Amino acid sequence: LMATRIINAAAALGDTSLTNIYTCPTNYKAVIKELWLTNVDGTNAVDVTVKWTDTSASATYAIISTKSVAADSYLRIESANIVLEESDILKVEAGAANDLTVSAFIEEIYTPT
């Protein structure tokens, strides 16, 4: 029997470091269905970088690299279908502190061993 659940993961990025937004839990695979990157700064554009870490391969890959998001605007990635396996991580980095919020809408699929 395969069980699924729909969850949200979100963060307000308070600095410019690469920040873990979501880690796929043990005994699950996850599909990031949609991703919103929202610039909450009313004056300035902000660059955003989105990466994922394949933990089993000890490798991190860029999905979006330094994409500018206009002031008071957003970047929406519809039908993203980014598949993460157990312990894989979705990460986001903002070009300026306190300017970006991230919202990920995720389907988790239970895969017991």
Structural write-up:
About 0% of the residues lie in helices and about 65% in strands. The protein has no helices and nine strands. Strands 1, 3, 6, 7 and 9 form a five-stranded antiparallel β-sheet that branches. Strands 2-8-4-5 form a four-stranded antiparallel β-sheet, with no helix packed on it. The mean pLDDT is about 95.
What is this structure, in a nutshell?
With 113 residues, the protein is mainly β.
The average pLDDT value, as a whole number, equals: 96
The parts where pLDDT drops under 50 for at least 5 residues are none
The helix-and-strand class reads mainly beta
Q: How far is it from the N-terminal to the C-terminal residue, by CA?
A: 12 Å
State the helicity in percent bands.
Answer: under 10%
Order of H and E elements:
EEEEEEEEE
Task: Please count the helical segments.
Answer: 0
Report on the biggest sheet. Answer: 5 strands, antiparallel
Judging from the principal axes of the Cα atoms, what is the shape?
elongated
Number of strands: 9
Please tell me how large the radius of gyration is: 14 Å
Q: Estimate the strand proportion.
A: over 45%
